[in-house]
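Re: ME8 structure - here you go.
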Amino acid sequence: MKSYVTTPIYYVNGSPHIGHAHTSVMADILMRNRAALGYDCKLTTGCDEHGQKNQEAAEKAGLEPAEYLRQRSGEFQRVFDMLDVNYDFFVHTSRPFHKEQVARAEAKLYDAGLIIQKQYRGLYCTGCEQFKKPSDLNDENRCQDHPNIDVEELDELNYFLRIEPYRQRLLQHIEDNPGFVKPAKYVKELKQMLEEPLEDLCISRPKRRVSLGVELPFDTDYVTYVWFDALINYLTNLGWPEEDYQPWWSTVEHLIGKDILKTHGVYWPIMLMAMEETLPRQLSVHGHWVGAGGLKMSKTLGNVVDPVEVVDQLGADALRYYMARNMRTDSDSQISIDLIRQAYNSELGNKLGNLLSRAGKFTSSKYDGCVTEPGALQPEDEALRAEVLAAAQGFAKHFEMSDIPTLVRQLVDACDQLNEYFAAQAPWGLIKDPATEERCRTVLYVTLDCLRLVLESFRQIIPTSADRALAMLGTEFDDNTVWAPQLSALKAGAPLGEIETLFPRITE
Ligand code: ME8
């Protein structure tokens, strides 16, 4: 079975921020989940390199656009590499093949009479790269998502795709496919967007205003509207239309933030209908990160979380863990370097790393560094094992992006149970008396074996740390087999690796 997961392609007018890191890491987590279930996977992420705001950023930096794009896209790629995002393809919309296919698609739509030319008068937000209606603006006449940027008044001759004729068909598609948008909260929002007739979608920009883009095949005075060009990346990444893209395309799942629901839930499906392509299988939407206290992150407030700084201070897995554990579906979620550090120390460090260290070092020093041979299991051993197995089983199923925080919490709860068990059983006391020494071996075995199962599950969330920890337990993981969580897979008598501190405590 195949699974094709995409992230938005990000504007390169600034450095990658925590939101960009989030969607790409979530996509990576989904891919690791699907791969563990035996799917053949493809993950794409990358950069949206055209449009007015990238062009303005290049001008401001005093660089030729091509050089600017090379530097900035390189920066995005390095951050995703740093975060262990295991993408199969890194998108650059300046890639010739992509540009050729965008132009080809436009020529086809034009020849079919679906693109018209007309005068446009109205407001434009460069932040969104979208036209706005007065009702979209706040009291200061600025776009809700970009309150720091003035909207521009435009009066231009442009090309448009008529999208209203497709609105009912799209509504019907949403009705017939309850899984098209997840979670359900966003289905409602999407339907609201489709309640009113849709205005024609402007698909061009005059070159005298914007030159960074794909030239229109039927009018060289224009480039393609950046969104029209960017959305098509999801197809060109598969070699569309030349290669055998359909087996992958039919499985596609687009991960997006809630800010781009309209472009992905309205414009993109309608573009696909006009191009006579099948609609995406699923749109998975997440909310936004805001600063601590619920404040919007901004340079002025000094509460912007820089992913590179987090990785330098706390490591990639601290960030991956925090994002996976704390994104809410019902509202925005708070993030700051202090919150990430706290979660790293108190959850990864105290609950997981310390237990591994204590149980591992105890086994190393008292039992020659080999996994102990357990005796008969007691009800408290079985109860713990059942709980750990249940938490692990969540990772052996095909999960949705919105399930991730709950699944991670279940694993952390299982770690709490493991810590309580270890403290209550107190193997350091049991070893002193020959009558209870066998019980000591059992407790150590159960603890390490349960930790192994927790770590095998955590490979989907914090892969580098989980693999390091599994090596300490002397186990190797075969990525070529389908993962099935099992108890008692740790071999008694097998040597442990060297037990190191997995998550060293980090104070400010
Ligand atoms: O919209 N919290 O690019 P973009 C969580 N180029 N995620 C966030 C976030 C936040 N505070 N801020 C941004 C574009 N994101 C277009 C996309 S796709 C064909 C073209 C994430 O650089 C989230 O995924 O503005 C959001 O949808 C995306 O970054 C927007 O990135």
